[in-house]
Amino acid sequence: MIKVVLADDEAMIRAGVRAILATDPEIEVVAEAGDGREAVELALACRPDVVLLDVRMPGLDGLGAAAEIRRTLPDTGVVMLTTFGEDEYIARALGAGAGGFLLKSGDPRELIAGVRAVAGGAAYLSPEVAHRVITRLDRGRMRRAADARSRTEGLTPRERDVLALLGAGLSNAQIGTRLHLVEGTVKAHVSAILARLGVGNRVQAAILAYEADLVEPGSSSGVTNGVTSGVTSPTRTRSP
């Protein structure tokens, strides 16, 4: 069962999100919060698999709550849910350690897919958000590609294999299956990769993999392909 803490300052929005998540028998909303500070407190108390946060809330907003949750509960995934798709919010959310970013105006199936993906250790961006990210990546891509290749050259061949699959949106369990490794070994590789690349989360590592051309064409990517990319089987091991 995937345990979720839901935070939004609008009760009607919380009711709607809860109803959508309730259609999946493997997802359970265990607590609700009306602001970011309460969300952090409930996350500490409930230790959920995923915290679903609205970006704009009174007091501590969703971005601040995401950073606090990722700092204190590294095994808990964070998904941002908002009506705003501006680049500033996307960049700040990913920088705060969010593993997913969804728009409230999107298809309800994206909500379930995003929660499942982040609970399974993968990254997930809604199609509109993914388009914005890729558009930003394409600007000055040659310079960033050179930098990304330089940063990934220090990885071992096995770490590069793991990074490529991470960039394709695979969870730790899926990477282990593909490379014939136990999940704990994959987790150790991911931790080493994040440290060597100097990035804070899987989304940032996936973007580096994309920029370094490590992701094979046609791979299902949690950064580039929206809904179909993020759906993974739920697992209790998510972080790193």
Concise structural overview:
Helices cover 53% and strands 12% of the residues. The chain has 240 residues and is α/β, with parallel strands linked by helices. It folds into two domains: 2-119, Response regulator (Rossmann fold, 3-Layer(aba) Sandwich), CATH 3.40.50; 136-230, Response regulator (Rossmann fold, 3-Layer(aba) Sandwich).
- Trace the largest sheet across and list its strands: 2-1-3-4-5-6
The helix fraction, in percent, is: 40-55%
- How many domains make up the 3D coordinates? 2
H/E element string?
A: EHEHEHEHEHEHHHHHHH
What is the CATH topology of the largest domain?
A: Rossmann fold
Count of helices? 12
For this structure, what is the CATH homologous superfamily of the largest domain?
A: Response regulator
Number of strands: 6
Stretches where pLDDT is under 50 for at least 5 consecutive residues are 220-239
Shape: globular
Sheet having the most strands: 6 strands, parallel
Give the strand content.
Answer: 5-15%
Whole-Å distance between the termini?
A: 20 Å
| Rg, Cα atoms, Å | 17 Å
CATH architecture of the largest domain: 3-Layer(aba) Sandwich
Overall mean pLDDT stands at 84
Describe the structure.
Helix 2 runs parallel beside helix 3 and helix 3 (62-72) packs parallel to helix 4 (87-95). The protein has helices at residues 11-22, 36-46, 62-72, 87-95, 108-119, 127-138, 141-152, 157-167, 172-179, 183-197, 202-211, 227-230; strands at residues 2-7, 27-33, 50-54, 77-82, 100-103, 124-125. It is globular. Residues 220-239 have low confidence and may be disordered. It has 240 residues and is an alpha/beta fold. The protein folds into two domains: 2-119, Response regulator (Rossmann fold, 3-Layer(aba) Sandwich); 136-230, Rossmann fold.
